[in-house]
Amino acid sequence: MYNIALHIKSRDWLYILIIGVFFGMFLSSLGYILLEKPWLDGAFFGVLLGFSITLFSLVFISYMNKNILPKLAEVYWLPLSILFSFLSGFLGTLVGTFLAKLLSLELIPAFEEQIVVISLSIGVLTYIVGALLYRFVKMRNQKDAIDHEYVQSRLRSLETQLNPHFLFNALNSIAELIHHDKDKAEMAVLKVSAFLRNSMNEKALLCLEDEIRNVKDYVELENIRFSGKIKLHIQGKPKNWSIPKFSIQLLVENAIKHGYNPAKEQLNIWLSFDDAKKIIILKNDGNAMKSQKFGVGLSNLNQRVELLCHGKIEIRDTLEPTFYIYVGDCNENINC
To answer: What is the pTM of this model?
Structure first.
């Protein structure tokens, strides 16, 4: 397992480069002004130093973290980190000074006369700054890891609350059928088995096409109990999206549970998509909603949509119950 303490992101290096160049330019310009030297030469020299030291740090430390430290016991990490951080500052200063001379920049006398001593001093300072950055990166990575585990734990908890919700209704349907039609009961058991086989995977997200396939299986299962009175109408071709598992299925289940009216000939459920705004629209012509407050199932689904996609679920109409799923940008890699 790759140690989180060794993981420095590309964005971190970009920030380090910007900070190094800025402070090198600022401090060098200030030093040149105090010594009554051309401040512009000082600014260019500071940029060269900051860039050179950061470049050496990136190469040395990245190589060390990727190829050396993972193969060694942690007892050797500190001395090697000190060595490579020091070399980054020492060599970066020498190269930066060399480049300044090539560009004919006016140098402070100390850089002409005592370049080795100055390079050694900057090497020590580079190690001190590197040690502070290491602490920051390690703490940030640990926080990211803890946040990731927390989110995964919440998702697992929400999904375990969702699956029994479906199974409870399905088993109730089968229990009723056993006393009236054994053949339909057997068909219902097979449908439940097929549905679970299609849906039992460890991915928190599914391709929209797969989710719709699960919804069709679910409606077929429910139609065994409701004698084919549930009509699912899919308007438009499914888009190449990834969505939270069971998201549409739960809304369809909710529509059947609260919208079905035995006095009506059938319950129509329409499923459509807004590709431009990345919205899934689901409505039915069943009973009007009595409240806009989410129950346990819808609250869990809304949390999963927020966690996985930074999206939300919204009730747009209560008389003709209409739900919008704002899919957003889902954060799990799925090959649709």
So the answer is: 0.53
Give residue 266's pLDDT: 93
Q: What string of DSSP letters covers 34-79? A: HTT--HHHHHHHHHHHHHHHHHHHHHHHHHIIIIIGGGS-GGGHHH
CA 328, CA 330: separation in Å to the nearest integer? 6
Cα separation, 11 vs 142, in Å, equals: 17
Q: What is the mean pLDDT of each run of 10 residues along the chain (336 residues)?
A: 56 79 84 84 88 86 80 78 84 88 84 81 79 70 60 56 64 79 81 71 78 86 83 85 86 90 92 90 92 81 83 92 89 52
Pairing of strands 230-234, 267-274: parallel
Q: Which residues, in sequence order, are CB contacts of 106 under 8 Å at separation 6+?
A: 37, 38, 41
Rounded Cα distance, 249 and 313, in Å: 14
CATH number of the domain residue 204 falls in:
3.30.565.10
Domain region containing 300: 181-326
- Where do we find the tokens 């396939």? 213
**31 shares a domain with 124:** yes
Is residue 336 in some structural domain? no
Distant-in-sequence, close-in-space partners of 120: CB < 8 Å, separation ≥ 6: 90
Tell me the β-bridge partners of 49.
Answer: none
131 lies in the same domain as 264: no
pLDDT in the model for residue 326 = 92
Number of separate domains in the chain? 2
Which residues 6+ apart lie within 8 Å of 167 measured at CB?
A: 192
What does the DSSP assignment read for 199-216? H-SS-SEEEHHHHHHHHH
**Residue 163 in domain:** no
Instruction: Give the position of tokens 């949509």.
Output: 305
